[in-house]
Amino acid sequence: MNQDTIQDDQARHRILENIETLGLNDNLLELTSEGYTVVRNVLSAEQVERAKAAILRRVEKQTGNKVDPDTATADDYNGMNYHNYLIFDDPVFPEILLEPKPLALITYLLGESCILSSMGSHFRGPGGIPLPMHADASQASLFETATVANCNYALTPYSREAGALVLTPGSHRKNRHPTPHESWMAGNRTFPEVMAQNPSPEALADIEWSAPVGSVTMEINPGDAVIFHGNTWHGGWRRELPGTRINLAAYFCRTHIATQERRGDKRYPEVFERYADEPRFAQLMGENIFTGWREEGPDYGKLAHAPTGLYD
């Protein structure tokens, strides 16, 4: 057994030992077999409220309008929009990034060297359209071994009427994206066929969508987290209720994958100082990645952090 294999085996042992210590063995089994798992009560009520308040501030800043999360109508905020790059918006977001239970399962999927690709909120008001079913992994990286993975935190209640996340169990083993007929249907019309007709907002509001065959709606509570393999097919219901569905999506990748958000950010030194004694934070923020140099050339010291296998 060579040194690289030993190193990777040691990392795998650490990861599985941590999962057992955290009481997540059943979640690991579900994640492996179904492609996703729900970890209940990850966030405290206080963390949920802080995260919601920070996201609402971002929404107001980007839209110029205040949105009441309990009573908003489609006129106030219609459908879903993604609000990105939240990691530095509020101290609560680095806290959530380091939550041990979801991170333990993400680490099983992507290894100890994994990094944060992006952190944002899929903020959904009433109306609009469902989120089409898709896999997060690109077509070129749909392998049985995960290259990306997602942790979706519910910050408001999830239900069908509230615009919940939807996943297809076992789809992570198909190693492909869903076809249009495996996504949302409006009668016998596929999602692309409906959208190709360029319907008006009023026409869209009248469409009755049927969920993808075999999919499961996440009926979960604020503070719960859904962790899923990057190959797992997922989407979301249109919201039918007043108010907003608020989530926080922490999306992770292996070090050779280009991140959605640029890492190596030097504009927030106070955040890195706050976590100076948390080496995992620097790793997740991409501070140890070997590649990405300019005229200064490579920092060969960072090769010590480069993975040798699936788990380290």
Topology:
Layout: H1 3-21, H2 25-34, E1 36-39, H3 45-63, E2 80-83, H4 92-97, H5 100-110, E3 115-124, E4 131-134, E5 148-154, E6 165-167, E7 185-186, E8 189-190, H6 191-196, H7 201-206, E9 216-217, E10 225-229, E11 234-236, E12 247-253, H8 269-274, H9 279-284
Antiparallel strand pairs: 1-10, 2-3, 3-12, 4-11, 5-10, 5-12, 6-9, 6-11, 7-8
Helix pairs in contact: 1-5
Protein described:
- The chain has one domain: Sandwich (Jelly Rolls).
- α1 packs antiparallel against α5.
- The longest helix has 19 residues, at 3-21.
- It has helices spanning 3-21, 25-34, 45-63, 92-97, 100-110, 191-196, 201-206, 269-274, 279-284; strands at 36-39, 80-83, 115-124, 131-134, 148-154, 165-167, 185-186, 189-190, 216-217, 225-229, 234-236, 247-253.
- With 312 residues, the chain is of the alpha+beta class.
- The mean pLDDT is 94.
- A hairpin with a 2-residue loop joins β7 and β8.
